[in-house]
Amino acid sequence: MKTKISILAAIVMVSLVFASCTKNHDKAGYSKLTFNLTDDTGPYDEVNIDVVGLQVIVNDSIYDMDTQTGVYNLLDLVNGKDTMIVEGQVPSGMLSQVRLILGENNTLVIGSDNFDLKTPSAQQSGLKLNVHQEIYPGVAYEYTIDFDAGRSVVLTGKGQYILKPVLKVFSDAVSGAVEGVVSPADVDAEIFAISESKDTVSTFSDSETGQYMFKGLQDGSYSLDFKPVAPYSDTTLNDIVVRTGSVTNVDTVKFDQGL
To answer: Which H or E run includes 27?
Structure first.
């Protein structure tokens, strides 16, 4: 009889502990995270990256996210276009870091030529992006991973191309954007957005539409420095104001040959 009572007591105790843990776990709550992939254009025909995973570090714990794996041509994701690669939930708390993990099937296309893009071994454990943002229970957060293709492809002294990714992550809720058009479209301008603190980001105008877009910019005033191909001349726009949560539309920049 005493044995049965002891067993029953043990079962009750385990149940209470489990219920307590479950209650505390529910109290901690979950946050929904979405990650999109986008790009700043570069002077290539294709820059293909092999996405094999994405991890986040929340409260010093690593979580493997359910990722839309595959090979993505970054140049399909320019001028405001993006694609979702992750949507899932994690415990709420401090989101400190995001790690984008690439595979080995990274390639570069220039005209009819294809090149393998090797990634330095130091980055094979994941491309680390620091976030340091508190995420709250029941709140959805959308992040964009901005991959700068033009600056990420490096030609070595041996004539080989390697992939040294230059990328950043930002939340659409805490940043702004700038978009505009250059005319004619074939000026193929490289465009630099320069903040008051001299931080600089760059992109290229679309060779067919002339469109360009900067995303993930902090509040402030920017200069836009346009560097088109010859025979067009450089030009600069000043005092372009960026506000969080909005897109600043810039008047069409028109280029004349020889000016």
So the answer is: helix 2-28
What type of residue sits at position 41?
T
Nearest by Cα to 68 from 80, 56, 81, 50: 50
Within 10 A of 82 (CB to CB), how many other CB atoms are there? 16
Quick check: 64 and 86 in contact, CB under 8 A? no
Say what the pLDDT of residue 108 is.
96
* Alpha carbons 204 and 208: distance in angstroms, whole number: 12
What domains are defined for the chain?
27-173 (2.60.40), 175-259 (2.60.40.1120)
Structure confidence at residue 122 as a pLDDT band (50, 70, 90): low
Secondary structure (DSSP) of 101-141: EE-S--EEEETTEEEE-B--GGGTT-EEEEEEEEE-TT-EE
Residue 21's H or E segment, with its range, is helix 2-28
Q: Exposed (0-12), middle (13-18) or buried (19+): which is 166, by Cβ within 10 Å?
A: middle
Question: 12-48: per-residue pLDDT in tens?
Answer: 444 444 333 333 333 359 999 999 999 977 789 999 9
**Global pTM?**
0.75
Question: How far is CA 134 from each of CA 92, 169, 192, 197, rounded to the nearest angstrom?
Answer: 8, 15, 31, 26
199: Cβ contacts below 8 Å, ≥ 6 apart: none
Listing from the earlier edge strand, what are the strands of the sheet with 235-242? Answer: 200-204, 190-195, 220-227, 235-242
